């Protein structure tokens, strides 16, 4: 039974990994080999000309797009964690009038399709003079209803005795939150930061609307122009996809343990 289970997992792993291997292999092929039929998994004569083309071309500043996306996703993740942690702690541990109504309203926003908010958000960003700046892709979605829901569920699992002990020692509410709750919530905070980073990193629609200058675009929006200009250069397209995927894979490798722990603990009922 164990052999069958591991065999099945191995087959599934191959199915998930094979597109990634094909993407990386194609990025090192020559233009002719990348368009060959039937396609090959690995290049016969590996070359880096696709990477040299997309990283050095003046009309497609992929490296600048990469840095823009990295800055945008990182700052967005920090803002989401900060706002969600504060709101979630208040909803999990503090008593105030209308708390249930506030929480229900926040949860209700999860059922609103994000595309509906494109025009209102655009009007707000335009009136704040944020158009064509990275602020426009960092701030508008920094208040995350999912983040509040996720961290609140995690905070409810933490023993109240820890907070009561801190209060008895003379700590105030902010000290309890910053020195007791947050250190104990590292797995959940890391999970939310990773998910927020991925959401912003992979966002395509919103940056297309608010970023106009080529040097201000994020990677996903910039790669769309790369695809439009090089629709038959599969080596260039795959090289761009590798550049876009690399930070996500590296980040998940380092945060995998925290993600598993954070999700499993947040799913428990207090």
Question: Could you characterize the architecture of this molecule?
Answer:
By secondary structure, the protein is mainly alpha-helical. The chain has a single domain, classed as Orthogonal Bundle (MetI-like fold). It has helices at 2-27, 31-34, 49-56, 62-93, 99-108, 118-127, 135-138, 145-155, 160-168, 173-184, 186-202, 205-210, 219-229, 234-266. The longest helix is centred in the last third of the chain and has 33 residues, at 234-266. It is globular and about 70 Å long. It starts with a helix and ends with a helix.
Entry keywords:
MetI-like fold; mainly alpha; 14 helices; 270 residues; globular; single chain
Q: What is the secondary structure topology, with strand pairs?
A:
Layout: H1 2-27, H2 31-34, H3 49-56, H4 62-93, H5 99-108, H6 118-127, H7 135-138, H8 145-155, H9 160-168, H10 173-184, H11 186-202, H12 205-210, H13 219-229, H14 234-266
Helix pairs in contact: 1-14, 3-14, 4-8, 4-11, 4-13, 9-10, 11-14, 13-14
